[in-house]
Amino acid sequence: MSWIYLFFAGLLEVLWAYYMKQSNGFTRLVPSLITVVGLIASFVLLSAAMRTLPLGTAYTIWTGIGAVGAFIVGIVFLGEQLTTTRLIAALLITAGLVLMKLSSDE
């Protein structure tokens, strides 16, 4: 169950990061509220996952899902540039996440 919590915590990290961008420096109410609620929910799920997962594993995977997810959302929804270097960086992060998961006893 901890891995499921961690996965959804990572997805919520992508959600709140996207809406933080949409909040325009917290000057727009609805995106700002979604940011705060998503952030809290993400932390709650991360905390639940950390009950049984090691800190290093849980935190690395949480931030990795957020980083790669935000990268993808930026390209797909915000028109950010996809370059070879950025793609390689995202692939390296993903490889690190896979290795972290494989090295976990949980």
UniProtKB/TrEMBL annotation:
The coiled-coil segments of this chain are none
Q: Which UniProt keywords apply?
A: Cell membrane, Membrane, Transmembrane, Transmembrane helix, Transport
Similarity remark: Belongs to the drug/metabolite transporter (DMT) superfamily. Small multidrug resistance (SMR) (TC 2.A.7.1) family. Gdx/SugE subfamily.
The source's domain of life comes to Bacteria
Q: Name one GO cellular component term.
A: plasma membrane
Entry-linked PANTHER family? GUANIDINIUM EXPORTER (PTHR30561:SF0), SMR FAMILY PROTON-DEPENDENT DRUG EFFLUX TRANSPORTER SUGE (PTHR30561)
Gene3D superfamilies documented for this protein? 1.10.3730.20
Q: Which GO terms describe its molecular function?
A: transmembrane transporter activity
Query: Per its UniProt record, what SUPFAM superfamilies does this chain match?
Result: Multidrug resistance efflux transporter EmrE
Organism encoding this protein: Persicitalea jodogahamensis
Keyword Iron in record? no
Membrane spanning stretches? 27-46, 58-78, 84-102
List locations, semicolon-separated: Cell membrane
Entry's Gene Ontology BP terms:
xenobiotic detoxification by transmembrane export across the plasma membrane
Q: Name one Pfam family in it.
A: Multi_Drug_Res
The reply to whether Transmembrane figures as a keyword in the UniProt entry is yes
State the encoding gene.
sugE
**Primary location recorded for the protein, binned into one broad class:** membrane
Membrane topology category: Multi-pass membrane protein
Name used for this protein in its record: Guanidinium exporter
